[in-house]
Design brief:
The protein is of the alpha+beta class. The protein contains 9 helices and 20 strands. It starts with a helix and ends in a 6-residue tail after the last helix.
């Protein structure tokens, strides 16, 4: 398959078109005209530089400090020390910075360092652990907010630039594309082929127009394949970004209330599996099996009972209990959702009006994967990753550099 099949010209801006031209050269083996190639690469570099130069002042370094007890304090020394967690942030207002909750959670003091080296105190104005976002207020500086994408929703194949800072407080950037759109109910995320560096959590993903398309949550990984070392159980394949579709709603709630209310269904579930009919020994997930129902809770009022198998949520297929829990908590209290479940081998349908959860546990604290388990996106990411590597090598060759 050619690169134009993956990235149609109608979807690409000038930056994307230049990438596509370079990619066609890489995969077709056609003769290269040095002057033309150098001109395209020079223009490509110019476009990327312009985008990052405009966006960089909107990116900050977030330093979250907390006091920790030393296990073995030195003789005569302090029994405690200051631990600093470093992440990134993006300006969404003149004195407002959005970062990930995992960076500032539990911090006693939060500092923000701007692109020009100014370091000031910041206050946590709001935090949500489910969506893993935190809003900081920085009254002592004026930051240029990064424009938010409004023209069109990001699509698979769109090129993206990720920006952040590293643990050494140095700016980082990576160029890639959107490999997978994960539009779960009220929980939209993007999987990019861009590399993620330590300290990038809370950084920005921007389009080729220089507009904010999402906030970096962390690294996307794949399980190790057969034959690899058991110590290498997960392999990085890019980055996971919370899409602006979701960020907008969370940000609005954090500004108004300092928190995000989350839905409650009032039941507990476990994984239900059956053995594959085509592959003996393989267990196939089929839904969320209800173990208990809270009396007079939303699920009870809708008629659910222990032993029911929940298989549908607002038109989405439920395969894992984690999916159901994530979609419920991502919904606001009072939301009416259409539920499908199976009882005694008969399909049941009902509408559940969600209550409000008293407390929530974030997916990044429980170790659950941010993307739903599925095979298709993984295969596509791996293929795109190989294409990106070939393109990078070809660009280096055209520029006269050496592969490392």
């Amino acid at each position: 398959m050619s690169w134009t099949a993956f990235f149609p010209a109608s979807r690409l801006g000038r930056l994307g078109l230049l990438f596509a031209v370079a990619a066609l050269v890489a995969v077709s083996g056609a003769p290269v005209v040095p002057a033309r190639a150098q001109g395209a690469l020079a223009q490509l570099q110019t476009d990327v530089d312009q985008i990052t130069r405009r966006a960089r002042p909107s990116l900050v370094t977030v330093l979250a400090q907390s006091t920790v007890k030393r296990r073995r304090p030195p003789r005569g020394g302090q029994p405690t020390s200051v631990h600093t967690r470093i992440g990134s942030g993006v300006a969404v207002g003149e004195s407002e910075v959005l970062t990930t909750a995992s960076v500032v959670l539990g911090a006693e003091r939060v500092l923000v360092r701007t692109a020009n080296g100014i370091q000031v105190e910041a206050q946590i104005a709001g935090m949500d652990e489910v969506f893993n976002l935190a809003l900081l207020r920085v009254p002592d500086v004026r930051l240029p907010p990064l424009p938010v994408t409004t023209a069109r929703s990001p699509q698979v194949g769109d090129w993206a630039i990720t920006l952040g800072t590293s643990y050494r407080l140095q700016p980082t950037q990576s160029i890639g594309n959107i490999a997978y759109l994960d539009r779960e109910p009220r929980f939209a995320r993007l999987q990019l082929t861009n590399s993620v560096y330590p300290g990038n959590s809370g950084g920005a993903a921007v389009s080729t127009r220089g507009e904010l398309i999402g906030v970096i949550l962390g690294e996307a990984t794949l399980p190790a394949v057969a034959g690899e070392s058991p110590l290498d159980e997960r392999r990085p394949v890019g980055s996971v970004v919370l899409s602006m579709e979701t960020v907008r709603l969370v940000l609005e709630a954090l500004k108004l209330e300092g928190r995000v209310p989350h839905g409650l269904m009032g039941l507990s579930t476990r994984l239900a599996e059956v053995e594959s009919q085509t592959q003996p020994g393989l267990r196939v997930p089929i839904g969320a099996l209800v173990e208990a129902v809270a009396p007079k809770g939303p699920a009870d009022l809708a008629g659910l009972r222990p032993g029911d198998l929940v298989v549908g949520f607002d038109g989405e297929r439920v395969e894992y209990p984690q999916q159901l829990a994530r979609w419920v908590t991502a919904s606001r209290p009072g939301t009416a959702v259409d539920l499908v479940w199976v009882r005694d081998e008969l399909q049941q349908r009902g509408r559940v009006v969600l209550g409000e959860a008293p407390a929530t546990t974030p997916w990044w604290a429980t170790g659950d994967q941010p993307l739903a388990p599925t095979g298709a996106p993984k295969a596509r990411v791996a293929e795109l990753e190989q294409r990106i590597e070939r393109l990078s090598r070809e660009i280096q060759r055209l520029k006269g550099g050496k592969d490392e």
